[in-house]
Write a structure and sequence with these properties.
The chain is α+β, with helices and mostly antiparallel strands. The protein has 10 helices and 7 strands. The strands form 2 sheets. A 5-stranded mixed sheet has the order 2-3-1-6-7, with helices on both faces. A two-stranded antiparallel sheet has the order 4-5. Strand 4 and strand 5 form a beta hairpin. Helix 1 crosses helix 2. The chain is rod-shaped and about 130 Å long.
């Protein structure tokens, strides 16, 4: 759009310049015939300015037009000299020649300047494009570092970062560690594609329960974790898990077949059960193992294991 507008402007400037130059030449000729030559110098200087502006405003087209109209303006002077055999009109021939030389110099340097400007613009655009590509790559690498590609959920690394952030701020929280029961059978019998569909389906279900309030991520292959900020009683956490169990228990349709799966849950809290992210993960892992060993499809609280052990 800008390129088209610039070309239109160049043509307009070109037409106006040529019309003014020719008009002044005709005016100068008429006055000369009438014997009035006092203004010839003024007219000649105006034509020099017009020729210069043609090159500046219309560049190549303006240069060509400037050369042509200045050369053409020499012929009336030559005819006048031949006719009158008087060299008094010679300056009228010298000025157009000097003008052609002047606008040629301007055109050459203007062309070099434009080429340099084009090269700089191209280099700038290449740098901008390179920065855009680097930014896209950085964003992609950041996404791959902190998000699970299959489910688009936060991954283990980002989940740990959130835990450590809350630990640093001394914010009380509870982690619910959820692992799909007998998920390996799905992959072994029905293939990994079916397993991936199942994981994506479960990820959506976790998202529907947790919303924006609670932080949920995919920690491993068939493992998910939820961080509940704030102080919760075991009864409240049980109620929360029961809502999860209700949603998870709904069958998943894959290739025309319905799959009924359950999950086991390990629960640990900060700072009661652990004071580092590593401690919290050890606690929920132990609780998860006991939930699996206790019959699956059930929660297990780490603090209750400790009480039992005590």
């Amino acid at each position: 759009m800008n390129s088209k507008s610039n070309k239109t402007s160049e043509i307009v400037y070109l037409i106006i310049g040529i019309v003014l130059f020719v008009g002044i030449s005709l005016m100068q000729t008429n006055l000369t015939r009438q014997g009035t030559t006092q203004l010839n110098g003024v007219f000649a200087q105006i034509q020099v300015i017009i020729s210069t502006l043609l090159v500046i405003l219309s560049h190549k087209k303006g240069y060509i037009a400037g050369v042509i109209i200045n050369i053409l303006s020499i012929f009336p002077v030559i005819m006048q000299i031949v006719k009158t055999k008087n060299m008094a009109s010679l300056p009228g021939m010298v000025i157009p020649v000097c003008t052609v030389v002047t606008i040629t110099i301007i055109y050459v340097f203007s062309s070099k300047t434009r080429r340099m400007n084009d090269e700089l613009t191209e280099s700038y655009n290449q740098i901008v494009e390179a920065n855009r590509i680097m930014k896209d790559k950085d964003e992609k690498l950041t996404y791959l570092a902190y998000y699970d590609v299959l489910t688009n959920m936060p991954n283990r690394q980002l989940f740990i970062s959130k835990l450590e952030e809350n630990i640093e701020n001394n914010t009380v929280f509870t982690v619910i560690y959820a692992d799909i029961d007998d998920f390996k059978k799905i992959n072994d019998v029905h293939g990994h594609n079916s397993g991936d569909v199942m994981l994506c389906n479960f990820a959506e279900r976790f998202g529907s329960i947790c919303g924006d309030r609670d932080f949920v991520g995919r920690i491993g292959g068939d493992e998910f974790a939820i961080m509940l900020k704030g102080s919760y009683s075991d009864v409240q956490i049980n109620d929360y898990i029961n809502r999860l169990r209700s949603v998870i228990s709904e069958p998943v349709a894959i290739n025309g077949a319905l799959f009924h799966l359950t999950m086991s849950y390990g629960v640990a809290s900060f700072p009661m059960d652990g004071r580092t992210s590593e401690d919290i993960f050890k606690c929920i892992d132990i609780a998860m193992f006991n939930a699996k060993a206790g019959g699956k499809d059930r929660p297990c609280f780490y603090n209750r294991l400790q009480q039992t052990a005590g």
